[in-house]
């Protein structure tokens, strides 16, 4: 057991030491080897979703370089197609070679995946691969079902609410609660999560949307620079939490007629697992990425599809996966305590513990994450996410203290 705790300590120590000594990439590129017929050719890897940054790199005419093309570089809306076509023309004029996903030369723009400039141009018969000390995360956007694409991010939300419904149904069975109360809880939780998360993001990170594009705050579209369906992008967990507190209060008093902390204790279990799925969705979307990491770190991942709002595209910490792993462990802990102890009869105790650990995970992982949008709140070097997490952790501690005087008998747990 002592060896286990020592290994955990070393893991956390290495985790934060790597943050302190995070890698700097002054040129905005990372090192790799293009292996051509078993011969390693050192290259500088570049990628960006910003058209101006792409154009600037194209004009540098960097020898021994490899550009990873992403969907943004092939965008044709809003005049960007012509802008990128001009950059492609500059690259071609400077001797760059356009390759498909199999590193085969191509002139078809739709097949562009890599653009490289090395001493000897590649041929169709060459055996080519990319060798890096870091991992590259460059997935498709989703599962293509004919003309419809099921986005992975949306699929993770389906999993979050789907598994949440199944687990809560199991909890209601264990507690002998009538299943008629399950669907209203699902409905109010869904509304609170989506609307609260969206409003929270806009209020805390993008308040200018209220003035610049009001409809995009409440609808899955944007109207500027042109009308476009975007889905509900830009969601904040702090906003979802606040909204869920109020929707659950309504559900507790008006529908199931139980102490709100009885509902919160059980809801926290499924929310922990749901949070893990949401962070996996962020990972698929290459968003909420971490700070630049040493390319030799086992955690280092290059996200070619990440937004330019996070900075240069270089190997980074997978902040989404760190959070997701923490939330899964929290779910396991809460489920164990619910099933194997009598803490579920101490109303508020499980919810208070959920609040403390959930927001502590968020607080510490923020040290390795890039800011989301503009940082409107910053105190003592802490970012907006960390500052907003502190009150929730304090609230969790107070709730746990309050729960000592809020115990119920097992038979009082039933609702028919």
TrEMBL record:
Highest taxon above the source species: Bacteria
Entry binding sites for a 1,2-diacyl-sn-glycero-3-phospho-(1'-sn-glycerol): 279
Membrane topology classification: Multi-pass membrane protein
Annotated pathway: Protein modification; lipoprotein biosynthesis (diacylglyceryl transfer)
UniProt keyword terms in alphabetical order: Cell membrane, Membrane, Signal, Transferase, Transmembrane, Transmembrane helix
UniProt xrefs under InterPro entries: Lgt (IPR001640)
Name the UniProt record assigns to this protein: Phosphatidylglycerol--prolipoprotein diacylglyceryl transferase
MF terms in GO: transferase activity
Subcellular location: Cell membrane
The family this protein is said to belong to: Belongs to the Lgt family.
Membrane-spanning ranges: 150-168, 188-207, 227-251, 263-284, 317-337, 349-365, 377-402
Keyword Cell membrane belongs to the record: yes
Free-text function comment from the UniProt entry: Catalyzes the transfer of the diacylglyceryl group from phosphatidylglycerol to the sulfhydryl group of the N-terminal cysteine of a prolipoprotein, the first step in the formation of mature lipoproteins.
Its EC number(s): 2.5.1.145
Keyword tRNA-binding found: no
Signal peptide: 1-22
């Amino acid at each position: 057991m002592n060896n286990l705790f020592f290994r955990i300590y070393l893991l956390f120590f290495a985790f934060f030491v790597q943050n302190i000594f995070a890698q700097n990439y002054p040129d905005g590129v990372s090192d790799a080897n293009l292996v051509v017929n078993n011969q390693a050719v050192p290259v500088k890897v570049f990628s960006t979703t910003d058209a101006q940054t792409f154009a600037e790199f194209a004009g540098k005419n960097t020898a021994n370089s490899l550009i990873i093309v992403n969907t943004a570089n092939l965008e044709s809306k809003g005049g960007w197609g012509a802008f990128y076509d001009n950059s492609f023309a500059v690259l071609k004029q400077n001797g760059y070679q356009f390759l498909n996903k199999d590193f085969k030369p191509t002139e078809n723009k739709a097949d562009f995946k890599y653009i490289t400039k090395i001493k000897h141009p590649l041929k169709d018969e060459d055996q080519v691969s990319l060798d890096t000390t870091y991992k590259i995360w460059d997935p498709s956007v989703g599962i293509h079902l004919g003309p419809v694409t099921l986005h992975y991010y949306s699929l993770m939300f389906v999993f979050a609410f789907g598994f949440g419904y199944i687990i809560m149904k199991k909890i209601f069975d264990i507690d002998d609660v009538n299943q008629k109360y399950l669907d209203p809880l699902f409905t109010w939780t869904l509304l609170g999560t989506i609307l609260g998360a969206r409003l929270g993001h806009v209020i805390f990170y993008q308040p200018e949307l209220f003035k610049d594009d009001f409809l995009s705050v409440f609808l899955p579209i944007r109207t500027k620079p042109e009308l476009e369906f975007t889905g509900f992008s830009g969601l904040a967990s702090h906003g979802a939490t606040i909204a869920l507190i109020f929707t659950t209060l309504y559900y507790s008093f008006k529908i199931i007629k139980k102490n709100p902390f009885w509902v919160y204790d059980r809801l926290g279990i499924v929310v922990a697992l749901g949070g893990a799925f949401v962070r996996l969705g962020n990972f698929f979307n290459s968003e909420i990425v971490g700070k630049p990491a040493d390319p030799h770190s086992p955690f280092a991942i290059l996200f070619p599809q990440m937004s330019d709002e996070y900075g240069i595209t270089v190997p980074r910490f997978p902040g989404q996966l760190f959070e997701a792993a923490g939330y899964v462990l929290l779910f396991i802990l809460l489920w164990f305590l619910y099933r194997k102890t009598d803490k579920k009869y101490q109303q508020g105790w499980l919810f208070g513990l959920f609040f403390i650990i959930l927001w502590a995970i968020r607080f510490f992982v923020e040290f390795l994450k890039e800011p989301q949008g503009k940082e409107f709140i910053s105190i003592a070097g802490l970012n907006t996410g960390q500052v907003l997490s502190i009150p929730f952790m304090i609230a969790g501690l107070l709730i746990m203290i309050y729960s000592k005087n809020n115990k119920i008998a097992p038979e009082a747990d039933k609702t028919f």
